[in-house]
């Protein structure tokens, strides 16, 4: 039986109030635009439909099967962001979602090649962010960041590979998941956000001679900031923030 997309007026109003509160905080933090991506992990498709009916079009998921299932029954003009770790054996499934707007967590040439191989029927390139492990935590995915003295590295190699060998992938930006401690201390600049901005600067410098490469820092988006620290991320220049619990409430255990 297909999951129901019906929602109560009360739930719709709650979600609308929550997303409008987040949008106000984003607007108050910076005059220029920043994309808001509600992350609906483990929440019902009806919640997404309620926000869709209120005008929201970008949504994100952490599990690729959950995204595929929801994409199948929800309106096809939703622009999906995949923000979880993508295993190589799930690349084909990700590529099969026609309205996947961006894969935010690309961190290997192997997955890039598998996506490229699986995108033969897609009419437009799939946007990708390269995931950077700015905090250096073993539990987090992503490639090491760049420093001002970097001349190469895994991130540079992956960026070059996407530009030179994956015509159906578009290098759209960089993404990070910051450390918990930094995310909950808003009294000073977030070191993970500073690190991602510095990495972007160096990556643009090291890729700029490759055909199709970004020429200016602003040509690469930054996806940084979640429910606890999105206001700080917006103030520090994030292009896109990923907000889950502030909009949908606490999630059930998986």
Task: Give a description of the structure.
With 254 residues, the protein is an alpha/beta fold. The protein has a single domain, classed as TIM Barrel. It is 39% helix and 15% strand. The protein has helices at residues 9-29, 45-53, 64-73, 91-95, 109-118, 154-165, 180-183, 191-207, 230-235, 245-248; strands at 35-38, 58-61, 79-82, 100-106, 126-131, 169-175, 221-223, 240-243. It has a six-stranded parallel β-sheet with strand order 2-3-4-5-6-7, covered by helices on one side. Strands 1-8 form a two-stranded parallel sheet. Helix 6 (154-165) links the parallel strand 5 (126-131) and strand 6. The longest helix has 21 residues, at 9-29. It is globular, with a radius of gyration of 18 Å. The model has no long low-confidence stretch (mean pLDDT 94).
């Amino acid at each position: 039986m297909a999951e129901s997309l019906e929602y109560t007026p009360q739930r719709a109003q709650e979600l609308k109030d929550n997303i409008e509160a987040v949008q106000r905080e984003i607007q108050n933090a910076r005059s220029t635009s920043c994309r808001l991506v509600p992350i609906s992990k483990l929440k019902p498709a009806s919640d997404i439909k309620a926000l869709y009916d209120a005008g929201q079009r970008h949504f994100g998921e952490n599990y690729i099967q959950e995204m595929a299932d929801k994409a199948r029954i929800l309106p096809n003009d939703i622009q999906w962001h995949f923000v979880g770790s993508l295993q190589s054996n799930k690349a084909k499934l990700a590529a099969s979602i026609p309205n996947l707007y961006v894969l935010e967590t690309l961190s290997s040439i192997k997955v890039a090649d598998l996506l490229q191989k699986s995108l033969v029927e897609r009419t437009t390139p799939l946007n990708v962010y390269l995931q950077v492990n700015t905090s250096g935590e073993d539990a987090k995915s992503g490639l090491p960041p760049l420093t001002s003295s970097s001349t190469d590295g895994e991130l540079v190699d992956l960026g070059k590979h996407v530009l030179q060998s994956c015509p159906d992938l578009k290098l759209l930006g960089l993404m990070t998941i910051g450390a918990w401690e930094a995310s909950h201390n808003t009294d000073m600049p977030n070191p993970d956000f500073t690190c991602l901005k510095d990495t972007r600067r160096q990556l643009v410098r090291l890729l700029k001679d490759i055909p199709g490469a970004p020429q200016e820092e602003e040509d690469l988006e930054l996806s940084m900031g979640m429910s606890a620290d999105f206001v700080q991320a917006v103030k520090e220049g994030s292009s896109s923030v990923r907000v889950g619990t502030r909009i949908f409430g606490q999630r059930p255990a998986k």
